[in-house]
Amino acid sequence: MLSPSPSLSSRLSNKDRMAGDAGVDASQFKGLSKYFNGTTVAGRANVAKATYALVGLIVAYNMIKPKKK
Hints:
69 residues; mainly alpha; 2 helices
């Protein structure tokens, strides 16, 4: 049987950690900060995905909107 792997922050040395990574447990977050935070890897990935989606929506809107004459 496999043992559970340790969290990413516990496997990284101090010099390999990103700024703001205090080894916070993700279960401490509530509300939107549970999904969009700068502390966990998943939170940073969700922020990046939301940013890409927003930029894509802005580009799509500008391509689809009617042209002014």
